[in-house]
Design a protein that fits this description.
The chain has one domain. The protein has 1 helix and 8 strands, in the order αββββββββ. The chain has an 8-stranded antiparallel sheet, with no helix packed on it. A hairpin with a 4-residue loop joins strand 1 and strand 2. The chain is globular and about 45 Å long. The protein has 133 residues and is mainly beta.
């Protein structure tokens, strides 16, 4: 897969981006595991910013887009080193009827197979210069 838009459709996501959004670099901010289902939620910022803003987002100074994915039917979960708020490079591919997810950087790895992966509603916020480091 090359674009987040190829995952299960999210109507709001499709409305605020006029072009497909490439899967690639993310800044991880949350990782939640529910072993009862089994499911996994990952929240992150993407470098792209929506180009079709709803009225309530206009002229507010927002400069970062945050979204996430909900992943169901998890198997073969591997987490190496508990990731901090770091940048990761994400790859998702279809293989044998499952989605193979991998987020990696030089220090950490999150890898699993999922029956389905859905985009969560995106949100925006203001990141100050002091948060870039």
């Amino acid at each position: 897969m090359k674009h987040w838009n190829e995952l299960d459709k999210n109507i709001f996501f499709e409305k605020i981006f006029s072009q497909p959004v490439k899967i690639g670099e993310i800044t991880l901010f949350s990782l939640q595991i529910d072993n009862d289902r089994p499911s996994l939620g990952i929240g992150f910022d993407i470098p792209e910013f929506p180009d079709i803003l709803p009225e309530k987002w206009k002229n507010k100074g927002y400069n970062v887009c945050r979204l996430g994915v909900d992943c169901y039917g998890i198997s073969d979960l591997k987490i190496l080193n508990i990731p901090g708020r770091d940048n990761f490079y994400v790859r998702i591919k279809k293989e044998d009827g499952q989605l193979c997810f991998q987020a990696a950087n030089k220090n950490s790895l999150i890898e699993f197979k999922a029956q389905s992966i859905s985009i969560c509603d995106p949100n925006v916020y203001i990141r100050g210069n002091d948060e870039d480091s």
